[in-house]
Design a protein that fits this description.
Elements: H1 2-56, H2 63-68, H3 75-86, H4 94-104, E1 112-120, E2 123-130, E3 134-136, H5 138-149, E4 157-167, E5 177-188
Helix pairs in contact: 3-4
Length: about 190
Protein backbone atom coordinates (compact mmCIF):
# COMPACT_ATOMS: atom_id res chain seq x y z
CA UNK A 1 0.00 0.00 0.00
CA UNK A 2 2.80 2.41 0.85
CA UNK A 3 4.38 1.64 -2.51
CA UNK A 4 1.12 2.48 -4.29
CA UNK A 5 0.91 5.90 -2.51
CA UNK A 6 4.49 6.71 -3.44
CA UNK A 7 3.83 5.80 -7.08
CA UNK A 8 0.70 8.01 -7.19
CA UNK A 9 2.41 10.91 -5.41
CA UNK A 10 5.07 11.01 -8.11
CA UNK A 11 2.80 12.06 -11.00
CA UNK A 12 0.71 14.40 -8.83
CA UNK A 13 3.86 15.91 -7.38
CA UNK A 14 5.36 16.34 -10.84
CA UNK A 15 2.13 17.97 -12.01
CA UNK A 16 2.10 20.34 -9.01
CA UNK A 17 5.70 21.32 -9.60
CA UNK A 18 5.03 21.79 -13.33
CA UNK A 19 1.95 23.95 -12.62
CA UNK A 20 3.83 26.09 -10.13
CA UNK A 21 6.70 26.61 -12.58
CA UNK A 22 4.28 27.41 -15.42
CA UNK A 23 2.62 30.05 -13.20
CA UNK A 24 6.05 31.41 -12.28
CA UNK A 25 7.03 31.58 -15.96
CA UNK A 26 3.80 33.38 -16.83
CA UNK A 27 4.35 35.80 -13.97
CA UNK A 28 7.95 36.38 -15.05
CA UNK A 29 6.83 36.92 -18.63
CA UNK A 30 4.33 39.58 -17.48
CA UNK A 31 7.02 41.21 -15.34
CA UNK A 32 9.40 41.25 -18.30
CA UNK A 33 6.80 42.98 -20.50
CA UNK A 34 6.16 45.47 -17.71
CA UNK A 35 9.90 46.16 -17.36
CA UNK A 36 10.24 46.63 -21.14
CA UNK A 37 7.40 49.18 -21.08
CA UNK A 38 8.96 51.00 -18.14
CA UNK A 39 12.39 51.05 -19.84
CA UNK A 40 10.83 52.41 -23.03
CA UNK A 41 9.11 55.20 -21.07
CA UNK A 42 12.36 56.06 -19.29
CA UNK A 43 14.28 56.25 -22.59
CA UNK A 44 11.55 58.44 -24.07
CA UNK A 45 11.58 60.71 -21.00
CA UNK A 46 15.38 60.99 -21.15
CA UNK A 47 15.18 61.90 -24.85
CA UNK A 48 12.61 64.62 -24.08
CA UNK A 49 14.77 66.00 -21.29
CA UNK A 50 17.85 65.99 -23.53
CA UNK A 51 15.92 67.85 -26.25
CA UNK A 52 14.68 70.38 -23.69
CA UNK A 53 18.22 70.90 -22.36
CA UNK A 54 19.57 71.32 -25.88
CA UNK A 55 16.88 73.80 -26.90
CA UNK A 56 16.62 75.86 -23.71
CA UNK A 57 20.01 75.23 -22.07
CA UNK A 58 21.37 78.67 -22.95
CA UNK A 59 18.21 80.53 -21.88
CA UNK A 60 18.58 83.81 -20.04
CA UNK A 61 17.23 83.36 -16.48
CA UNK A 62 16.31 87.07 -16.49
CA UNK A 63 14.65 86.97 -19.92
CA UNK A 64 11.46 88.73 -18.78
CA UNK A 65 13.50 91.63 -17.39
CA UNK A 66 15.89 91.88 -20.34
CA UNK A 67 13.52 91.28 -23.24
CA UNK A 68 9.94 92.00 -22.16
CA UNK A 69 10.19 94.64 -19.45
CA UNK A 70 12.61 96.57 -21.68
CA UNK A 71 9.87 97.22 -24.26
CA UNK A 72 8.53 100.78 -24.38
CA UNK A 73 4.78 100.69 -25.00
CA UNK A 74 3.30 103.45 -27.18
CA UNK A 75 6.79 104.49 -28.28
CA UNK A 76 5.44 106.45 -31.27
CA UNK A 77 3.22 108.50 -28.93
CA UNK A 78 6.12 109.06 -26.53
CA UNK A 79 8.34 110.29 -29.39
CA UNK A 80 5.60 112.58 -30.72
CA UNK A 81 4.80 114.05 -27.30
CA UNK A 82 8.51 114.56 -26.62
CA UNK A 83 8.92 116.49 -29.88
CA UNK A 84 5.78 118.56 -29.22
CA UNK A 85 6.85 119.20 -25.61
CA UNK A 86 10.13 120.70 -26.85
CA UNK A 87 8.33 123.30 -28.96
CA UNK A 88 8.42 126.72 -27.30
CA UNK A 89 4.64 127.15 -27.35
CA UNK A 90 4.05 123.78 -25.59
CA UNK A 91 6.89 123.76 -23.05
CA UNK A 92 5.43 123.14 -19.62
CA UNK A 93 1.98 122.37 -21.06
CA UNK A 94 0.49 120.25 -18.27
CA UNK A 95 -1.53 117.66 -20.28
CA UNK A 96 1.53 116.81 -22.39
CA UNK A 97 3.79 116.64 -19.32
CA UNK A 98 1.35 114.40 -17.42
CA UNK A 99 0.88 112.04 -20.36
CA UNK A 100 4.67 111.76 -20.88
CA UNK A 101 5.16 111.03 -17.19
CA UNK A 102 2.49 108.32 -17.32
CA UNK A 103 4.07 106.73 -20.40
CA UNK A 104 7.73 106.95 -19.36
CA UNK A 105 8.05 106.93 -15.56
CA UNK A 106 6.97 103.38 -14.81
CA UNK A 107 3.20 103.69 -14.67
CA UNK A 108 2.88 102.19 -18.14
CA UNK A 109 6.03 100.07 -18.10
CA UNK A 110 5.62 96.30 -18.31
CA UNK A 111 6.86 95.12 -14.92
CA UNK A 112 6.51 91.53 -13.73
CA UNK A 113 6.19 90.17 -10.23
CA UNK A 114 6.84 86.57 -9.31
CA UNK A 115 3.76 84.72 -8.08
CA UNK A 116 5.10 81.22 -7.56
CA UNK A 117 8.31 79.22 -7.99
CA UNK A 118 8.47 75.42 -8.22
CA UNK A 119 11.61 73.30 -8.47
CA UNK A 120 11.97 69.77 -9.77
CA UNK A 121 14.81 67.62 -11.12
CA UNK A 122 17.02 70.26 -12.71
CA UNK A 123 14.14 72.54 -13.70
CA UNK A 124 12.56 75.64 -12.24
CA UNK A 125 9.06 76.85 -13.13
CA UNK A 126 8.30 80.48 -12.36
CA UNK A 127 4.86 82.04 -12.61
CA UNK A 128 4.94 85.81 -13.16
CA UNK A 129 2.34 88.47 -13.85
CA UNK A 130 2.19 92.14 -14.73
CA UNK A 131 2.14 94.36 -11.66
CA UNK A 132 -0.43 96.54 -13.42
CA UNK A 133 -2.11 96.55 -16.84
CA UNK A 134 -0.14 98.24 -19.62
CA UNK A 135 -1.60 100.47 -22.32
CA UNK A 136 -0.43 99.26 -25.74
CA UNK A 137 -1.15 99.68 -29.44
CA UNK A 138 -1.19 96.92 -32.07
CA UNK A 139 2.57 97.19 -32.68
CA UNK A 140 3.25 96.77 -28.96
CA UNK A 141 0.88 93.83 -28.78
CA UNK A 142 2.77 92.14 -31.60
CA UNK A 143 6.09 92.83 -29.85
CA UNK A 144 4.87 91.30 -26.57
CA UNK A 145 3.56 88.20 -28.33
CA UNK A 146 6.82 87.80 -30.26
CA UNK A 147 8.97 88.14 -27.14
CA UNK A 148 6.92 85.62 -25.15
CA UNK A 149 6.02 83.06 -27.82
CA UNK A 150 8.60 83.75 -30.53
CA UNK A 151 11.88 81.99 -31.17
CA UNK A 152 14.44 84.24 -29.54
CA UNK A 153 17.82 82.57 -28.99
CA UNK A 154 17.91 83.07 -25.21
CA UNK A 155 14.20 82.64 -24.54
CA UNK A 156 13.32 80.03 -21.92
CA UNK A 157 10.28 77.86 -22.46
CA UNK A 158 7.33 80.17 -21.83
CA UNK A 159 3.56 79.86 -21.82
CA UNK A 160 0.75 82.32 -21.32
CA UNK A 161 -1.32 81.41 -18.28
CA UNK A 162 -3.52 84.47 -18.71
CA UNK A 163 -3.71 86.98 -21.51
CA UNK A 164 -6.29 89.75 -21.16
CA UNK A 165 -6.74 92.53 -23.64
CA UNK A 166 -9.42 95.20 -23.39
CA UNK A 167 -10.00 98.09 -25.72
CA UNK A 168 -9.04 101.33 -24.02
CA UNK A 169 -12.25 103.31 -23.66
CA UNK A 170 -10.46 106.52 -22.66
CA UNK A 171 -8.57 106.85 -25.95
CA UNK A 172 -11.30 107.17 -28.55
CA UNK A 173 -9.06 108.84 -31.15
CA UNK A 174 -6.49 106.02 -31.35
CA UNK A 175 -6.30 102.23 -31.23
CA UNK A 176 -5.04 101.37 -27.78
CA UNK A 177 -5.68 98.51 -25.41
CA UNK A 178 -5.17 97.56 -21.78
CA UNK A 179 -2.95 94.48 -21.67
CA UNK A 180 -2.59 92.22 -18.65
CA UNK A 181 -0.83 88.86 -18.63
CA UNK A 182 0.56 86.01 -16.57
CA UNK A 183 3.31 83.80 -17.92
CA UNK A 184 4.86 80.52 -16.89
CA UNK A 185 8.61 80.31 -17.47
CA UNK A 186 10.39 76.95 -17.37
CA UNK A 187 14.17 77.10 -16.99
CA UNK A 188 17.04 74.67 -16.52
CA UNK A 189 18.92 75.02 -13.23
Amino acid sequence: MALFILCMAGPVGVWCIYSARACDLEFLSEELVSLETLASKMVSENERRAYFREKFGSADPNYLTHQVESLTPLKAEVDLLTRIGKMPSFQGFEPITKRLQFLTLGKNQPLFEEIDRRKSEGFVEVESRFIHPVTVDLNDLSAFLTRVEGSHRYRPQMFFKKFEIKRDTIAKDRESYQLNMEVLTREIR
